[in-house]
Amino acid sequence: MKTSNLKKIPAAKAKRATVRVGRPPKELAGEVDTRILDAARKMFLERGFEGASIDEIAEAARSGKATIYARFRDKRALFIDVVTRDILSRITEFKTGVPTGSTIEERLTSAASTLLHWGLDSERIALMRLAVAEARRFPDLASTVSRTARDLSTELGVRLLGELTQSDELRSLPAFAPERLTTTARFFLDLIAVPMLLRALFEVDLKTLDEEIDAHVARSVAFFLAACRHGSVS
Q1: Containing domain of residue 22, as a range?
Q2: Same domain for 109 and 139?
Q3: Helices and strands (DSSP H and E) totals, the chain
Q4: Rounded to two decimals, what is the model's pTM?
Q5: Are 193 and 217 in contact (CB under 8 A)?
Q6: Secondary structure (3-state) at 50
Q7: Residue 91's pLDDT band (cuts 50, 70, 90)
Q8: How many structural domains comprise the chain?
Q9: Taking Cα atoms as reference points, which of 174, 193, 196, 194 lies closest to residue 184?
Q10: Buried b (16+ CB within 10 A) or exposed e, 67-96
Q11: CATH number assigned to the domain comprising residue 189
Q12: pLDDT digits (tens, 9 = 90+) for 142-185
């Protein structure tokens, strides 16, 4: 009887150990990835690429180093995924509510202001600064992020303008013709977003910059719409 009990105890322990160290259920795998990427993002922002260690990231993520290395080849691969997720994936996630205003100028100003206030988030800008600082170490990442961010933001601009310019007046303008809308959207973003983004990358006080967004957008939208109404886009 005693021998039988002794044989059962190690088996039970082995079974419990298997549960503890085994792969997480499929439905939890995404949560583990998110936890690791969030922890890595925090460590990279606090310590930079060189200063952050996999040990610290594992501790912050409440995960083992083996779990991290099972998903990411090394710290470089982890950094690339963090930057790609936060700079590129976030662009596709942007959603704006129904823009306020009774005129196209007011609605476009409302949507553009929402976009800039969202995009110039302090942590997002800090990560972009880090990516720029590491451009020599990650030249392929830098060029890919730059090109892809431009393409994704242009798609966002096309969607935004397409939703907001359904009035008879603007729909009849050459700049808003379907075959020209991509070019028009790029002009719009270059005028509205790029100057503020460049300032955000180099200026320390983002709160002051945030306070300037609404006035900047109002002036830029007025200029943009005047150009569309009285000029042409080739």
Answers
A1: 2-72
A2: yes
A3: 13, 0
A4: 0.76
A5: no
A6: helix
A7: confident
A8: 2
A9: 174
A10: bbeeebeebeebbbbbbbbbbbebbeeeeb
A11: 1.10.357
A12: 888 889 999 999 999 998 888 877 766 677 888 888 899 999 99
